[in-house]
Every structure is written in C-alpha cells, then in structure tokens.
Specification:
about 325 residues, mainly alpha, Rossmann fold, Tyrosyl-Transfer RNA Synthetase, two-stranded parallel ribbon, binds adenosine-5'-diphosphate, binds sodium ion, protein biosynthesis
C-alpha cells in the first residue's frame, strides 16, 4: 500500500530552539520510516518580516544543515526550500481567493505578530495561513506534525480544503494535525506564560540547538521559577513545570520519576542537571552541523534533489486544481 504523506516545515528566521526541537523536529524524525515525509524550509513565510538578503540566504542554508544535523535522513525524507517549488505560491493565490477575511481576522498569530511589528503589518502577514494551507494541501498531506501554536492555522487549512472540495469537487486530502502529548508547547525560560520562540527578543528565554555549553548553562541557571521550593509538575509552578517537561522529553523519565528523584532538592540542582542533559543532546548535533556547513556542495545536492521530488508531487495536485476551477 502507498505510504501516507507528512508535511511540515520551519521558518529560516534563526537557529532552531529547544521548543522547535521537542515540539517538531524530534517527531519528524520518528516518522521517516513509516510515512512519505516532506520537510520544508519555508523561506517564503519568512518574507513577512524584513530580512537582510545576504544573511537570509545563509539562514536558509543554515536551517537545512540544522535539519540534517538533527538527524533527518535525506534518503528517507524530501527536504527542500519552499521557494524552489513555485506551485506553493500559485496554490496560495488560489486559496487566498477561497479564504474569507473574517477567517484570517480571527487568527491569534496575526494579532500577536502585528502587535509586535507595528511598522510592518503587511498583507503577507495577514494571508500567511493561506500560504501555509497551500504548503500542506499541495502534497495531499495526511498528517502535519507541529507544535501547539500551529493548531489554529491547521484547523483553518482543513476548513479551506473541505470548502474547496465542496465547491469544486474532490481535490484535496483533508489533513490531520499531530501534536506530541508532552512538549507541544515549550515555554520561554524567562516568561513561562509565553512560548519559547526563535524570534523572542529576550535571548535568555530561549535555548538554541547551537548554544555552546557555557551559554546554555547560564541561561538554564537564570530560568524563572517560583518561591514554592518544591519540584512539582503543576500549573501553579509554570517555570518548574516547563523544566520538568524538557527533562522528561530528553531522558524519557516520567514526570513522577523526576519528581521523586528531586524530592527535597533545590531548583539549582534540577537546573544544573538539566543543563547537562540538554548539552549532551545538542553536542553531536552541533558537531554534525559544523560539518554540513563546511560542505555547501552537499547541501546544494540535497536541496536540489528535494526540490525536484517535491515539484513532481506538487504539479500532480496543481493539474487537478487548475482543471477543477476551470483554468
Ligand atoms: P518559531 O516560532 O520558533 O519561529 P516556527 O514558526 O519556525 O517556530 O515553527 C517550527 C515548528 O516548531 C512548528 O511546528 C511549531 O509549531 C514548532 N514550535 C515552535 N515553537 C515551539 C515551542 N515553544 N514548543 C513546541 N513547538 C514549537
Ligand atoms: Na511558529
């Protein structure tokens, strides 16, 4: 039988965070044997913020090297730059014409981002979810592994697909969303009520997969906790809860095992151990990353092959779309 399709991506807006790693990339890898997986570097999405063109090109290559360093196998997955498959933009326009202003107006990410970037509230920022729907629907995707923050966009993608199929006949597979049970929303170490994000302005809130040991340990030690003085996994202690979540995801110890291990111990103890666990996880990734970044011709081979494979699949869907809407 034909393998089911997975699509997901991340924006080349900087180095991947521990949140991206636990909420998304780690799961992507777990699917590579059983699904037909497409993992994109969604460069077009990043044009919604102003980039320095030279740095941007490098950020795109860097993210590709980060994907590979995190263990995504290019022989098992299709890894490509979104902009190399022009069908993404073509379908995005068509979906824009089948998406209501009211739907886009309800998107909390648009509200958050336009509040953050008042000087650049562009149309792309507003229609971002239609491009994201195009990314997914273009490949007849069955499953989309993402963090919690993408749930609302994914529900909109489903609504758009269902409406399109009703209006123009069966065209798109309706995608399901996959979020991990734990780690779907890793919080900022400085503001545990806010998600950890690569675009966070407070660098101490975010652990990056390329942070060296000293820097990482410093950030971990500064992590905001509380005055309770007990290491418990509960909503009243969001900072501690977040640390336990990260700990559990990286060691596969259960929450209870961690609570027992640190019974009667202080936050400092937990933080130092956790810094070591995170460092050990990222060390091999950092070594692999350096090697990939030294081999630009290899990276070029990966993204060129990825684009060809993705274009083939995308064009199959676009033929159907164009025919069904009378183009
Ligand atoms: P960012 O907000 O860090 O720029 P992206 O928009 O590039 O991240 O998202 C890449 C993937 O990582 C998405 O699937 C997203 O849901 C996931 N993700 C982002 N931040 C977190 C987080 N703090 N915890 C868990 N998953 C996250
Ligand atoms: Na995001």
């Amino acid at each position: 039988t034909k393998k089911k399709v997975i699509f997901s991506g991340a924006q080349p807006t900087g180095v991947l965070t521990l949140g991206n790693y636990l909420g998304a990339i780690q799961n992507w890898k777990s699917f590579e044997d059983t699904y037909n997986c497409l993992y994109s570097i969604v460069d077009l999405h990043s044009l919604t913020v102003r980039n320095n063109p030279k740095e941007f090109k490098n950020a795109c290559l860097s993210l590709l090297a980060q994907y590979l360093a995190c263990g995504l196998n290019p022989d098992k997955n299709t890894i490509f730059f979104q902009s190399h498959v022009p069908q993404h933009s073509e379908l995005a326009w068509i979906l824009n014409c089948n998406t209501y202003m009211g739907e886009l107006n309800r998107m909390t990410q648009f509200k958050d981002k336009s509040a953050q970037h008042k000087d650049n509230i562009n149309a792309g920022l507003f229609t971002y979810p239609a491009l994201q729907a195009a990314d997914i629907l273009l490949y007849q995707t069955n499953l989309v592994p993402v963090g919690q923050d993408q749930k609302q966009h994914l529900e909109l993608a489903r609504d758009i697909a269902i409406r399109f199929n009703n209006n123009y006949g069966e065209t798109f597979t309706i995608p399901e969303i996959y979020t991990p049970k734990m780690g779907a929303k890793i919080m900022s170490l400085q503001q545990p009520e806010q998600k950890m994000s690569k675009s966070d302005e407070n660098p101490n809130g975010t652990i990056l997969i390329l942070d060296e040991e000293k820097r990482l340990t410093k950030k971990m030690k500064k992590a905001v906790t509380d005055n309770e003085g007990v290491i418990r996994y509960r909503d009243e202690q969001p900072g501690v809860k977040n640390l336990i979540t990260i700990y559990s995801k990286l060691t596969e110890l259960s929450v209870e095992e961690i609570e027992n291990k640190y019974d009667g111990k202080g936050y400092g103890h937990l933080k130092v151990d956790l810094a070591e666990i995170v460092t050990d996880t990222f060390r091999p990734i950092q070594e692999a990353y350096a090697n990939y970044m030294d081999d630009l011709s290899y990276l070029e081979k990966i993204y060129t092959e990825g684009a060809l494979k993705a274009q083939d699949l995308a064009e199959d869907t676009m033929k159907k779309v164009r025919k069904n809407i009378g183009l």
